[in-house]
Amino acid sequence: MRTTNKYIALAVGLGLVTLSACGSSSGSGGGDSKTVTLVSHDSWAVSKSVIAEFEKKSGYKVRVLEDGDAGQAVNKAILTKDNPQGDVFFGVDNTLLSRALDNDLFQSYEPKGSDLILPEYRVDQDKHRVTPIDTGDICVNYDKAYFSKHKLTPPTSFDDLIKPQYKNLLVTENASTSSPGLGFLLGTAAQYGDDGWQDYWKKLKANGVKVVDGWEQAYNEEFSGSAGGKKAKADRPLVVSYASSPPAEVIYADPKPATAPTGVAAGTCFRQFEYAGLLSNAANAEGGKALLDFMLTKTFQDDMPLNMFVYPVREGAQVPKEFMKYGPQAEDPETMDPAKIADNRDDWVKSWTSLVLK
Question: Cα separations (Å) of 220 from 69, 119, 131?
Fold first, then answer.
């Protein structure tokens, strides 16, 4: 997933901790038993006070290595699993989970507080190789001002997106390089089935869908409804993003608008889950266990939403009022069993690439 760096230009000065050290291959803090190293995609962010609380209570210093988008980070972690860069990996999602598990990326550990994870988010209960940390919905967002100006009703479903009135309006991310792009592809596969999703994408392509490499380009350069898109004079009023994007547009705006400038097409959502795990061969396994324990505490789970723009998975964790008002979770999102994703993901991406990009 994906979220803090998505809005990083708007979040400057809010005191988030990213501690980036991309590209390092020095191992887990050099084997320092007082340092616990977290490997993540680029969207890790936590309040300084929360990290300070963990460090004070545990006695460990936290070091964070950000390794690109989710797919990049998972692939690099697999390649370095015999001599891992860190102790804990955060950010493998349900679209990539099988790849990590099949490659023995994680060792077994059941963190304290696992019994408080909401039942619908629990996975791998027999081996406890990964722990659910957050969830969110990948959905098409729309620019309210555009649709009001053109007296056009915003789309609400996948079917709507292939209608003539929405021709040349949608931008999405490359399913082979982007987590939201892959999630959107999986959402269409869940909606139309193994035999129908390719025909849907043929129609979507014919209706002028634009494909770019990643979320940053799609949302902040191509989407007319975002703060970045307005500055870039973007001309696409539909974008594949997240249900939590509209709250971000409100929270980081100055002055704050009375309502979100963007909305969500609720019938286009695919539910994403993110996990963390103790890396195989971690140099500081005890520190890694302590960090995983902390990620399930109410302190950490309450802090996540407004830093990483995701929903918590722990019972009783607080959901910000802005989320409930501007970016509620989809009532009936598309989902897919991780085993089905594992069986089909690579073939689907290959077919999608041939169909849409060539």
Answer: 16, 35, 31
Structure token digits, residue 311: 């929903």
Side chain identity at residue 316, one-letter code: G
Q: Tell me the torsion sign for CA atoms 312, 318, 321, 322.
A: negative
Residue 304 CA: distances (Å) to CA of 5, 47, 121, 310, 321? 14, 9, 16, 7, 14
The C-alpha angle with vertex 153 and arms to 150 and 155, in degrees rounded to 5, equals 120
Peptide bond into 255 cis (omega under 30): yes
Share of the chain above pLDDT 70, in %: 91
pLDDT digits (tens, 9 = 90+) for 209-254: 999 998 989 999 999 999 999 999 999 999 999 999 999 999 989 8
| Rounded mean pLDDT, 48-77 | 92
Task: Tell me which residue of 192, 186, 171 sits closest to 346, measured CA to CA.
Answer: 186
Measured between alpha carbons, how far is 316 from 298 in angstroms, rounded to an integer?
Answer: 8
